[in-house]
Design goal:
This protein is an alpha+beta fold and 189 residues long. The protein has one domain. It is 31% helix and 31% strand. It contains seven helices and eight strands. A six-stranded mixed sheet has the order 3-4-2-1-6-7. Strands 5-8 form a two-stranded antiparallel sheet. The protein starts with a helix and ends with a strand.
Amino acid sequence: MRRLLLALPFTLLPLAATQAAEDEHAHEHEHAEHSSLAAHEHGAAQLNVALDGNTLELALESPTMNIVGFEHAAVSASDQAAAAKAKQQLQDPLALFSIAPGADCSVTKLEVASLVFAAATAATKNASEHSDVDADYALTCNHPEQLQGIDLSELFKRFPATQKIQVQLIGPKGQQGSELSPANPRLKF
């Protein structure tokens, strides 16, 4: 399953290229960085989703600014508190992604990483101008047929600096890509 999730970006590359070309055509007058999701764009995040049998995998990548409100090392007490709160919220994927209770999913893997979450001394040594949060989840669902989609309303609510999420999905109906926002927070399988 891990290989499937890792292959997802490459599998959907033609879809992303088509979308980027459409965006570029629609916004020719805008700067190139606005025509598609940049590698590190504040307000934007990426989510890869794969549903294979009873396993649901989610991989979220976001600039730390969207999640914590800053990207520098969490040295001050208030920064450390903000980083700890964000990490705690990211450790509850069933709430963040509003997965249908009827699917009876349980978290089997949870990895949340960012330099901002590291100890202040380690983060200071490795600090860079930009940092990201990577959150990887695997869930086992006893009734995956109950999964009709995922609602990211709570994620947008908890992390209001996140304005859009580029989603790549491999699910029961094949591959798809979409862009979610606070006004359009639902991903359909």
